[in-house]
Amino acid sequence: MRNAISIDLEEWFHPEVLRGRFQTSEWPSLQARAPQVVDRLLEILAEAEVSATFFVLGWVAERHPELVPRLVAAGHEVASHGYSHAMITQQTPEEFDRDLRRSLDILRQQSGQAVTGYRAPSFSIMRQTLWAFDIMIEHGIEYDSSIYPVHHDRYGIPEAPRQPYRVARRGEVELWELPPPTLRLGNKNLPVAGGGYLRLFPYAVTSFALRRLNAQGIPGIVYTHPWEFDCDQPRV
Q: Which superfamily does 4-229 belong to?
């Protein structure tokens, strides 16, 4: 069974928990930390001989145009994390279309490749935003990794499948959905092996969860962020 490592390439001030602390207009004046952390991540991945998928935020790629070519040169996949890190639940279909288009234009130009993957900021593909799949398909997206099959106050579709599955939209047009990893406990799914869950749970929990998933024929789609590797990021 092959598992996957994915990295949401964004800045330390982009997580939703800080949206009320820093206005979008302030972002250009804040200290950029992503470029030097990417250096460290590329070293770690090279040492482990692992290729990753980087879901790159268009805003970061636009301000640091050297990053995407470096990811491609190192053999990693480039996918989209949108442009502005706005949750889809806070956007209209027209706004999401513009956000996705802007990010893809930047990433495809910088990478010289087809960019066919997408992950929504804060996993914000929910029941009320399933319309986003139609827009993804229009822009050539072939797989998404945004539906978390858990209960959460900001994201999640608890009854969604825990394994990769095809989403059919507009008749025969389909794309793959690659859900983040969960551990089934009773009648609930416990999020594991990514983000805060990866940081806070003991490694034994993560290791057990991935082995359990693999035994069930489910790959683990592990996810993390550059700022989770940065001990020197500004304190808020």
A: Glycoside hydrolase/deacetylase (3.20.20.370)
